[in-house]
Amino acid sequence: MASTHPQNSAGKPRILVTRKLPAAVEARLKRDYDATFNPTDSVFDGDRLVAESAGHDGILVCSTEKLPAAIIEKLPPEVKIVATFSVGHDHIDIAASKARGLAVTNTPDVLTDATADTTLLLLLAAARRAYEGERMVREDRWGRWEPTGMLGVHVTGKRLAILGMGRIGRAVAQRARGFEMEIHYNNRSRLSPELEQGAIFHEDPEELLTVADFLSINCPATKETHHFLNADRIARMPDGAVVVNTARGSIVHDESLIAALTSGKLAAAGLDVFENEPAIHPGYRDLPNCFLLPHIGSATKETRDAMGFRALDNLDAFFAGKSPKDRVA
Ligand code: DGY
């Protein structure tokens, strides 16, 4: 591979790989790079990440590794690129990366379907009380079929409000149309009619909430969306609404959501992502109307392979002196 960047004596760029990746991805890394792996798969905290980066031309990280400005400024000068094995890049300070001339790439597209599938899983499971029903069966507490037992929220024909109509939001909408849901959305800008597919645009996200029988959070985590779903905004939603989140936990104010699920203002929630995960707010654990998953939105074999290959495509382009397709800094 021709390179305009520093390389080791074997002529291959030196890459620090912070987490254990799928076997096929690691095989390609071994073939094309002078790769340093993390055999314990432990998460490198800031200073450890800085120390381990020494002597590497690039680092391949996951959303578990946090790169705020203070860490980016301390990275050794030989590190020229951070490729993240994720579509989200809120764990990396993009402005600080640009200021330092550090390239940053992510992995969009390839996880859209898996994440949208997980969103529908959460939506259905939360609405139809899957957690309660599953426990009842396993714990041998299922007495008999009851005409009035385990009544959930009807999904078909309801209004689905999607906050963030990017690739994943649109894939959620496409699936929800199969349940005859009426799609409403808010996005930074209105989509073209081809992408909208009849979905109803709400310029004001506050107004979107008023029609949210179901709210699906699919926007990126930014300063603007931090704790977007708070008590005041939940109060605007219809009584008995359902919230699902496969984006980032920081978009939800946990205490407000827990209070609304406890009071019955909201019927249920389905959550795959949490602020400060895996140390989630303990209040969620006690709520039977909350269906919880451990951030597995993109966790299929096919998707994780594709995410790894996409990250490597970006590194390949960068070290060949080309512009990586998914460059965000
Ligand atoms: C993503 O790709 O952003 C997933 O949430 C994994 O971090």
UniProtKB/TrEMBL annotation:
<dbReference type="Pfam" id="PF00389">
    <property type="entry name" value="2-Hacid_dh"/>
</dbReference>
<protein>
    <submittedName>
        <fullName>Glyoxylate reductase</fullName>
    </submittedName>
</protein>
<dbReference type="Pfam" id="PF02826">
    <property type="entry name" value="2-Hacid_dh_C"/>
</dbReference>
<dbReference type="InterPro" id="IPR036291">
    <property type="entry name" value="NAD(P)-bd_dom_sf"/>
</dbReference>
<comment type="similarity">
    <text>Belongs to the D-isomer specific 2-hydroxyacid dehydrogenase family.</text>
</comment>
<dbReference type="GO" id="GO:0051287">
    <property type="term" value="F:NAD binding"/>
</dbReference>
<keyword id="KW-0560">Oxidoreductase</keyword>
<dbReference type="GO" id="GO:0016618">
    <property type="term" value="F:hydroxypyruvate reductase [NAD(P)H] activity"/>
</dbReference>
<feature type="domain" description="D-isomer specific 2-hydroxyacid dehydrogenase catalytic">
    <location>
        <begin position="15"/>
        <end position="328"/>
    </location>
</feature>
<dbReference type="InterPro" id="IPR006139">
    <property type="entry name" value="D-isomer_2_OHA_DH_cat_dom"/>
</dbReference>
<dbReference type="InterPro" id="IPR050223">
    <property type="entry name" value="D-isomer_2-hydroxyacid_DH"/>
</dbReference>
<dbReference type="InterPro" id="IPR029753">
    <property type="entry name" value="D-isomer_DH_CS"/>
</dbReference>
<dbReference type="GO" id="GO:0030267">
    <property type="term" value="F:glyoxylate reductase (NADPH) activity"/>
</dbReference>
<feature type="domain" description="D-isomer specific 2-hydroxyacid dehydrogenase NAD-binding">
    <location>
        <begin position="121"/>
        <end position="297"/>
    </location>
</feature>
<dbReference type="GO" id="GO:0005829">
    <property type="term" value="C:cytosol"/>
</dbReference>
<dbReference type="InterPro" id="IPR006140">
    <property type="entry name" value="D-isomer_DH_NAD-bd"/>
</dbReference>
<keyword id="KW-0520">NAD</keyword>
